[in-house]
Amino acid sequence: MSDDLTLIADAVKRGEVLLFLGAGVHASPDPKKNLPWVYPDKDRPLFAGELAAELASQSGWSMRFDPARFPPKSNFTRVTLDYELNIENDNKQASKVPPEPPLARYSVKDAAEAINLRKQGRSTLANAVRKAVNVGKVPSPALRGLAQLNFPIIVTTNYDDLFTSALIGAGKNPTTAYYEPRKSGQQDDPIDDPTPKKPFLFKIHGCASTPSSMVLTDEDYIDFVLSMSERESNPVPNTIYHRLRTWPTLFIGYSLMDYNLRLLIKTMRYKKDRFKPSFAIDPYPDALITRVWDDELKYVNFVAEDLWTFVPALYKQVTGNDMPP
Description:
By secondary structure, the chain is of the alpha/beta class. The protein contains twelve helices and seven strands. Helices cover 43% and strands 8% of the residues. It has a seven-stranded parallel sheet with strand order 3-4-2-1-5-6-7, with helices on one face. The longest helix has 23 residues, at 111-133.
């Protein structure tokens, strides 16, 4: 890791790294390793599989789909779509006296009723997601450590507000923007050029505080990919595209086994040249993906370390101090 760590740390010291944060940045340290940092699972946002299982338990998923064939933990975007479409009727069934179980299928009178049920369901879904990722959750020592380093621009696929909290806790004044699916034209750039003290945080899959912005369901992902492919409606601010060409990119909390992440990276690079190196922190990089993305395409250099090894090492290299507990 030493050569890659030195290259990344030197760029971080200059404030010239584009940071991408995924859900894995919230992972708890392995208690078997006796590390000096503690982050209980109860303090972190639910991961996608856990959230899908929680949503499925609140709805009639198991009445409509065989859990053996369609386990909720492996079907996040379908569980969320089912929840959005059916939770209002599921709740009506549960509120009857005596309560009745959810139905395998609900009939609707017309398109207007279907649209209204989905709108109400979206609000209920968004509230459930907000509670799962924000309420009672706190930034980890690793997230706080990253917030103290010199990252002027951060892109995250996380819905939660924990990195914003960590940045403010580090004495910084972040500007936050997020994907807006119904906005015409490109997302506005920050008025002032981002700096390590006044960083720009872009939530590319939306924000938990704004229900319509979150990319949760199958349909949301389709709409998001379509918007990424259109020059006029591309939601990514030009500031980020500019820095992709001029600064190295650091991915933390991701696995490139995630199809949606690979699709996101490819759409951001589509028909664009001269990108700077990218580094992905992944303790177990997949051999096939490494062959294509590293050896052939040269999109990503894999650093085979876990979160709780890499982030403290980066912190130490940049600041000269141990990462605080």
